[in-house]
Amino acid sequence: MPKTKSNENDPVREVLKDEERSALAATLDEDLETFMKSLASKKKGDADRKPFNFDEWCRELDQHPAFMTDLHIDKNGQYSEPVQALQALKYDDSETESRIEKAQRHKDEGNKHFRYKKYRWATDCYTNGIKELCADRALNSILYSNRAAAQIRIGNLRSASRDCVFARRFDASNMKAVIRCAECLVEMGYGKRCIDWIDTSKALFETLPQDALDKDEHF
C-alpha cells in the first residue's frame, strides 16, 4: 500500500460508513480488473511489433494505485481519487482486523471447496477474500495464488497467469505462484515469456532474506 505522511486533518483518515466502504471496495476491484484487461489487450496488440518484455509489463502494472510506491500530487495539490480511496481504506483502523479475518475465512472456505474439487466455488471464495482489500500482503498473495490454482483446474490459463502476477506482486517469495504462472505460460505456448518470468522471479528471490524463502505457507 502506498505510504503517505500522517495528517490528522486529512479527510482520507475519516472512518467510512459500511455502505460507503462496500461501494468503494467494489469500485476499486472493478477498476483493477478493467486495468488488467486493458493492459493484457495492449500487450496482445504489441506482440507482433516487439518481443514481450515482462519487466515493462510489471512497470505498467505498478502504475495502478494498488501497487504504487511513490505517490504524485496533481496540479491541484491533491492525490488522484483512486489513491485517496485506497488511503481511506488503509486508515480505517477499526476495520483492519475484521477485514483480515473475513479474508482468511474466505480463503479457508475456498480451500475446502478446492479439496472437494469444487473449483468454481473455490474461485468465488478466493475472489470474495480478495475483495476484502485487507492489509495483509501475504494473505492477499495466497488468495490470488489459490485462485490461480482453481482457474487452472477449470482451464482458464490466462486468468490464472494474471492472478499469479498479482500474487508475486504482493509477496515475491510465493514460489507456488511463480511455478503456476510458468506452467501456464508453457501450456499456452509462451516459452519466451516463461523464461522472462522465471528470470525476473529469480532476481526477486535473490533480494529476499533466507527465512522468507524457507516458509511454506502459500496455500
From TrEMBL:
<dbReference type="InterPro" id="IPR011990">
    <property type="entry name" value="TPR-like_helical_dom_sf"/>
</dbReference>
<dbReference type="GO" id="GO:0005829">
    <property type="term" value="C:cytosol"/>
</dbReference>
<dbReference type="GO" id="GO:0030544">
    <property type="term" value="F:Hsp70 protein binding"/>
</dbReference>
<protein>
    <submittedName>
        <fullName>Tetratricopeptide repeat protein 4</fullName>
    </submittedName>
</protein>
<dbReference type="GO" id="GO:0006457">
    <property type="term" value="P:protein folding"/>
</dbReference>
<dbReference type="GO" id="GO:0005634">
    <property type="term" value="C:nucleus"/>
</dbReference>
<dbReference type="GO" id="GO:0051879">
    <property type="term" value="F:Hsp90 protein binding"/>
</dbReference>
